[in-house]
Amino acid sequence: KIAMPKVHRGMMLQERYEKAILEGKKTWEGRAMRGMAARVKAGDEVAFRVTGLPARSPRSLSLRVAEVCHFQDCAAMLHQIGVPNLLPDLKAPEALATYTGLVGDGKYVAWRIEHPRQEEGRPPTPSWSSSKPAKEVHWSKQRGMVERGVEQPKLGPQAEEVLEAFGSQMVTSGHRTDQAHQHKDRLRWIGHRLPSGLAPVMGPTRQQQEVAELKGEIKAWPKNVQLHGHLLCSFNWLIKFLEGADLCPRVTAATKKAVQGC
Question: Nearest-CA neighbor of 62 among 44, 42, 43, 48?
Fold first, then answer.
């Protein structure tokens, strides 16, 4: 029995990468090998929702996946596929920081792009596809959450005030609202498990050595390993916010200095 090609919808693509694909500069798309990205096969079609556009002007980019390659980590993918084919405007260190900064460590997959086409509005459904539109999933039930479907208990008033400001700044900087909720939820889980909570890093007297030690501790937690670095990712974003760094979902000076996570 020959498997029919599938259409995968729901993944996001930044506008600058859409432009690079349409111009023929970006010929491969790299993704962390989990969730929907791990299920894409050669011959399938991917319909991205382009982000960074005005709310009243939605646009999608559809493409055919001509070839699929799997890698043990991001560095291996960049070496074999080549940085210019994945992120044509970046050098190798920046490209590595971009990928690990957005989705963390772990296995990666790369797709060779074929027949890209731009569409106004939401991603279309090709006539040969029998797939039904995916139902919207609550942020607490998505991948990367500590307990799927369970929202973590809130921290103290002062910590919650900081988390709310952090979440608002994430959205203002270009992250989706559900991503901000997810980061705050993981940070609450971390705060309840650290002996002194998040207070030491939220206060004005935090020490870089203490922050570095906490990063090492969180990185080693079995739950962080199980979640492919999502806990450390959220903690790193919080530290960037507290240090006044740019929170845009792209390479920044702070991202380049990050050792792990995003």
Answer: 48
